[in-house]
Design brief:
4 copies of one chain form a homotetramer. Chain A contains 12 helices and 8 strands. With 308 residues, chain A is of the alpha/beta class. Chain A has one domain: Aldolase class I (TIM Barrel, Alpha-Beta Barrel). An 8-stranded parallel β-barrel of chain A has the order 1-2-3-4-5-6-7-8, surrounded by 5 helices. In chain A, strand 2, helix 2 and strand 3 form a beta-alpha-beta unit. The N and C termini of chain A lie far apart (37 Å). Chains A and D meet through helix 7, helix 8, helix 10 and helix 12 of A and helix 7, helix 8, helix 10 and helix 12 of D. Chains A, B, C, D: It holds the Pfam family DHDPS. Chains A, B, C, D: One of its GO terms (molecular function) is 4-hydroxy-tetrahydrodipicolinate synthase activity.
């Protein structure tokens, strides 16, 4: 059982939750999907996040999925999204998944938080509820949550709670925030791991600014793995060559709400999951959109052949 | 087992959830609180709403509370709040409480809904998830949810779903919406029950506009019962005399977030619950605020003696 | 030419802007309205605020109104609302009205501010734009602006900018904020004047917590004047007696958006302005709503006869 | 004097407003910038939009800029952004710029609109205020305005107001909306021109879905011109080849708030404007960010050499 910490690096893929066309959890696809992510080089997975359709699951379903994935991961770290409107639900799910061997939990701020003080108090309550021994990922995603966390507020939270060891970084624009956090660490603040989201659309710049890797669900995790490797080796031009090949598709997959349908469509075409289906309610990918994605996938393959 | 329907009238008190000072559910106070509400004339209760600290409960706690209250109510109707970010949780909790004998469920729209079309689709998904046989209360509370439902949108929802039998009305301003709905019914749209919230601060005007009663948690339910009775008897001046006596306290209790602390403080002073405690996190009532409430309670008693 | 400062006390009425039924500024009513406010005991006026329909005016109209009112006020202080999306417009209007003899300007935060840091920077930019010699009222009205300013953030702003001499207080709930500010002053922070808004619905409690008066547009300014006098004389029970008589109407006038129509309707019935008209677009007062207001005005007169 | 209409096609560049480092309008750069845009193939310009720092201008400055640009454009169409919190300001500015020879005005919905009905009423009020003879561009940019306009609502607005001849399309995701509008036109609704924003990051797909061109301010307008040409000639693969070369930079320029600094930095490096300066307050481009942009510009040049 491995746990994340402030020095964790690499690529944690946000895992999809496969469903059958009639809305049942596709447990058959789950193991294969986990294998696929790790075969492509993922260092860990994050499950039951926004893109994992977590709110469409009952708690018993959530636990069953977590259990199966943690088992299949065979010791590789699995972070579990536990964001919920109330602390009781967060506490209950956290205890259950940590007991199963999760590597940590991820918590986004609820949308009713306004002032810096309210945000700081919220994370104090979270840590108090789940215990100081559970590693926490702070998810900073203002576009989805509506909550803006300044660099200074984030610093206060990190100083207050050593168990918050990682930032899932997806503010937009967000590059300066990485620089701010790393600058503060140079002046003595304790280190946190920074893994970046937003479908990877700023990954090379984020790595160069000091990020430790990626935590997002782009359907080609091998791209993220390779870009992190190249950036860590200071081969930025090569990293951008690869990045540029994937960017047209990443941009398409980053579209809010629609993005999950795109992601599942690609994963299904790649044979990773049996069906692109989302559980209802879910935005369908129209035939026109499917053609657009296939067009981009074909161009990607052609471009990859050119640059490799 | 009684169920609500489109002709339900009267006062449904939004029930508090009593806790002990150390944050445990105060099951000992629960039965007495239920008895108190019915002794004061309530026609039914609504539980596990925003003011019932529902998000602070685990699902097993929610069910235990619902079970105890439904049993104690001995056949009187209990509406259960089931609002949640995802449909699966709504479906699961609805099934459980309806099996226990609930009179119906209440659903507020999630904050991410924007257009009329999205709101209409959401309620279609809710009804599909829980089944067309479960009576539903649509909670219209834009100040808390951030979702504005126009009179026309509401009309479409009522026309689409006969199982949505009641509106918990707490838009602000909201009087025109009652008139709009009743006008549409005169022109042929099916009737819905309208029970009003907002701590009762517009109750006489709402009754005169065509509301069927109140659904709110003001700590003096006897006031709501009597105002409904007087308005139904067209004794509006008497209704306002009573209303005016309570209004200073209602206004104080209506304060967002702080209101629940006020409500529980009064209920505890009235001997209805053993402790004013909220489960953490909860806004405390400062000593100064406590003095202000006691001052207003004392003035209320004096005024009641004058007008009775 | 008098200017507001950190010790300003009393009642500043938020002035309406009278229009003729065809949408022209009713300059004939303006002087009489100014006289009415001062006859009823107002210490000053605040013009071109949200309730003054400022956004419906062209800048030349705004200036013409300001000029006429400042002249008619004959030395009594006139605060001018200058909130705008951009600093240039704020700077331009401020210069113009200060040249005319305004007592200061009022600025609410624009809705796109999120973090404490952004709010603090915004007011620094405002003060830099208009100059440090112009007295500023900070309007704290989260329900209308969407911006939440914590007590600590407000303290920082007051410490940074001596020219921000007054708070128009209308957070809701907001009593604790008054206590917080006064407590900080006891520990050494410089004093600011606190005048309270929200149609006066918490005025007695606000005065007791340390407010200096009222800044709101309730159509019976004599009530605000008298309550401030009674509270300053520690006659709180008498203050509440008066307050309770007006509260049913204040509550009705406090309704968002609709409130201005109510206010103008009452002012017109009291003979203060010739027409209740708002410039388009403006929410009309329906015949039913008019009857409700007249009913409450009649009850107020009766109650005033009883308690006087 | 040319005016836009429902058949207008091509590229309308959102023009920057050049400032000197001390915050004065750089009138010397203005003419050259206008020439640059038209030399690169622009069909028209849109000025005084969000990216033109309009809220930082006084009205007299706005008019002076509009006058100079309309004159320099020598008959080419200039659309002027007139969005403002109040209708009076919209009416006043519209009259002034149409008198100067503007091709039309652009209006985004104010952030307080919620329901479909409110949005529809708002545009009715706009058209009534400015007159039915002024061509209007409806700007649909939910990420910036907070207002979501459904395809059906947009259709109602277009049906109600023939003078609203163009959609500035920048919903995200927004491709389906183009398809929805074109589908409705096939069934009989009158045609509107659709020009697309969002820095061009979906331009090839938007053209293929039926858009008429672009209206955005990406610092390489020649790219937009060429992509529109290629798409109109059904040369989609070539269009994507070009698009892919620019996408890394477009993505960087699309960052909210920061984007304008990036755009001006590139325009200054390209010699189009003398200074990258924004009028205060404006987000500066940090030295690190400048390096990132230069890195991307260098890669773009290299890639353009490869594919041409």
């Amino acid at each position: 059982m491995s746990r994340i910490n402030a020095n964790t690096k690499g690529v944690f893929v946000i895992a999809a939750t496969p469903f059958t066309p009639d809305g049942k959890i596709d447990h058959n696809s789950l193991d294969g999907m986990v294998d696929f992510y790790f075969d492509k080089g993922a260092d860990g997975l994050t499950i039951l996040g926004m893109m994992g359709e977590a709110p469409k699951l009952t708690q018993s379903e959530s636990l069953a999925i977590a259990k199966q994935i943690i088992k299949r991961a065979a010791g590789k770290p699995i972070v579990v999204g536990v964001s919920a409107p109330g602390l009781a639900a967060i506490g209950e799910l956290t205890k259950a998944v940590m007991d199963e061997g999760a590597a940590g939990v991820m918590v986004a701020p609820p949308g009713n938080l306004k002032t810096n003080e309210q945000i700081i108090t919220y994370y104090a309550n979270v840590v108090k509820t789940i215990g100081e021994d559970v590693p926490v990922v702070l998810q900073d995603f203002p576009l989805a949550t509506g909550v803006s966390i300044s660099s200074a507020t984030m610093g206060t939270i990190f100083e207050n709670h050593p168990s918050i060891v990682m930032l899932k970084h997806e503010d937009w624009p967000g590059l300066q925030k990485i620089s701010d956090l790393r600058d503060a660490e140079k002046k003595g603040r304790r280190r946190v791991s920074i893994l970046c989201g937003n479908a990877g659309v700023f990954l090379p710049e984020e790595m160069r600014r000091g990020a430790d890797g990626a935590m997002t669900g782009f359907a080609y995790p091998e791209m993220m793995v390779e870009i992190c490797r190249l950036c860590n080796a200071d081969q930025y031009d090569k990293a951008h060559d690869l990045f540029d090949a994937y960017l047209p598709l990443m941009r398409y997959e980053q579209q809010p709400a629609l993005g999950l349908a795109v992601r599942k469509f690609i994963l299904a075409r790649r044979g990773v999951i049996a069906h692109a289906s989302q559980r209802q309610p879910g935005a369908d990918l129209s035939p026109t959109a499917q053609q657009e994605v296939i067009f981009l996938m074909t161009r990607l393959e052609k471009r990859m052949a050119e640059i490799s």
